[in-house]
Design a protein that fits this description.
The protein is of the alpha+beta class. It has 10 helices and 6 strands; from the N terminus they run ααββααααβααβαββα. It folds into 2 domains: about 110 residues, no CATH class; about 90 residues, Chitinase A, domain 3 (Roll), CATH 3.10.50. About 55% of the residues lie in helices and about 15% in strands. The longest helix has 27 residues.
Length: about 270
């Protein structure tokens, strides 16, 4: 039904960059200090490792202080001790653990690469404005308050329509809907623009008059719908500046996805 949920997932689902990666980049951007912070059973803890971990803690809101530096140093010492014991126990020789370590290494490299790629391929305000205008055009100038009942077959939808014509309550019939997100609320979908729905649903919705339901079942990839239009009103789209960050994130994700597809197309995979 909703395509808006997919759009929202694209806009907000998972930032390209995590705080640890940002922190690591900041640490890497600064000149690395020579020397070591501590030596644990003969193994050195490098200043660069300390700087990266320290920057990570600051990025998470920890204040710059001597206490934080001491705490970071102690944590790195403990980690090194535990790492040494793990190696003594042969944990690193376990194939499953080795695979997890390789996946973690890949994840760090991939995130750092993507962060650098996005920085080198900035999205212009003109591109974002064009995307914004296209989104507004798709959504249209009206939003609708609707309900629906989703069932498996056309015959089931026809039975629901027959019951509505006999005076049955829409919200009661909605309890048999297979849409878990709306069935307990009488099939309520709230206020949404027609462009938020898949085309067959949107087309049927916009043809309805207030208070009317579809007298012919509506087929989508989700199943068969009976749709009720409760009300409509002019759509007030959010201002460009208000959703610019989400538009930028979406554009960056599309940029990265295109790069990955190009790499996959050119790659020799046997």
């Amino acid at each position: 039904m909703h395509t808006l949920s997919k759009l929202a997932a694209t806009l907000v689902a998972g930032a390209l960059l995590t705080l640890p990666v940002i922190a690591a980049e900041k640490a890497a951007a600064a000149p690395a200090k020579a020397g070591t912070v501590a030596t644990v059973n003969g193994t050195a803890i490098s200043q660069s490792l300390f700087d990266a971990f320290y920057a990570e803690q600051k990025a998470q809101g920890m204040p710059d202080s001597a206490e934080l530096r001491n705490a970071v140093k102690e944590e790195l010492v403990r980690r090194e001790l535990l790492t040494q014991e793990a190696k003594k126990a042969g944990v690193d020789k376990n194939p499953g653990i080795s695979a997890q370590m390789e996946l973690a290494r890949q994840a760090v490299l991939i995130r750092a690469f993507i962060q650098d790629y996005v920085k080198k391929h900035p999205i212009s305000d003109a591109q974002l404005k064009s995307e914004y205008d296209a989104m507004k055009a798709k959504l249209g100038g009206t939003e609708y308050k609707s309900r629906h009942i989703l069932v498996e077959t056309e015959d089931q939808a026809k039975t629901i329509i027959d019951n509505l014509k006999k005076g049955a309550k829409f919200d009661e019939l909605a309890k048999q809907s297979k849409d878990p997100g709306s069935k307990e609320n009488g099939g309520d979908l709230g206020w949404s623009a027609a462009g938020s729905y898949v085309p067959p649903f949107a087309e049927a919705l916009t043809k309805l008059s207030k208070g009317k339901y579809t007298e012919t079942p509506v087929k989508t990839d989700f199943g068969w719908h009976v749709i009720l239009l409760e009300d409509s009103r002019p759509l007030e789209a959010p201002a460009f500046e208000a959703i610019k960050p989400q538009l930028a994130q979406r554009a960056n994700q599309q940029l990265v996805e295109k790069m990955i597809i190009d790499l996959r197309t050119k790659a020799k995979v046997q």
